Amino acid sequence: MARHLDSEAVHLFTRTPGLDAETVECVVTVPTFKRPGQLLETLRSLAAQETRRRFAAIVIENETRECAGAKAAAPLIEAGAPCGLVILAHQRGNCAAYNAGWETALRTFPDFRHLLVIDDDEVAPPSWLETMCLAARRLEADIVGGPQEPVFADGGRNSLKNHPVFRPPYARTGPVPALYSSGNLLLGRHVLEAMERPFLDLAFNFMGGGDSDFLSRAAARGFRLAWCAEAPVRETVPPRRLEPDWIRARSLRNGVISTLVERKKRAGERLGGARVVAKSLALLALSPLRGLRRLAATGSLSAAMYPVYVGLGRVLAEFGYANEQYREPDKN
């Protein structure tokens, strides 16, 4: 039986018996939606972490009718493999699920130092959590991102690993000016305590990009960002995401998100909106040249078209275009 938490939209499904919340140093949030089998792989990889840090997982079930993920995760969580809790986030959407998990972490674990994020289609190596925490200390970073290495389900499209849609934004460990994804992320507790609520803007709920916007706002507040190349997670890429129309839609969406995030960033500037439009038009105008350079370097027409679609997406965003790929997750 689910038990009520502080928010009407969030309920506790189950937790590890005897979990000592005050001793937890790290919290790992795992949002899930209709991927019970993959979620189990994610949780088993967390249970296998090689670290002396006491950590707990929060599984955030965002499909609360059948609760397939919550039901699949419950035996592992109740057995303490890994320790933690399973919650039901009744408000649908990517951003709503993340917000529910992060708020629950703050309410439940009073002394944790680091919050990490892994998605339910990702698997972490045993060194992942420890490597991310050490990178935060060594680089004096408030937020650390890591690679999401694609594992293609059909095994035959490894050439797409270098496509901009799938390739990590950085290759080397160190401070970085920006981060774009929460799929492999570490946040200091002090970051969450300082940022405005909701953490992820619900305007991005079914489009994606709420994480990119959050990270942009965190950087603008002065939090230090870093990249840890030594802490990858493996992300399963289903055959659907290898089809040209999905890659094209994701490329357009990335352009839309880029405009929306920059528009929010420049909201208080004089002529900020005009500058965003000018940049979008310039990027679209230059995109064929950039595409030709990419074609010469990679030999891939799909990769060459990426800057064109991003530029087009940036301009279309000015006319209200929004590609909500998460609106129908079964097709995403």
Automatic annotation (TrEMBL):
EC number: 2.4.-.-
Residues annotated as domain Glycosyltransferase 2-like: 28-167
Presence of the UniProt keyword Repeat in the record: no
Keywords: Glycosyltransferase, Transferase
Enzymatic class: transferase
Transmembrane segments annotated in the record for this chain: none
GO molecular function, one term: glycosyltransferase activity
Protein family according to the UniProt entry: Belongs to the glycosyltransferase 2 family.
UniProt protein name: Glycosyltransferase family 2 protein
Organism of derivation: Chelativorans intermedius
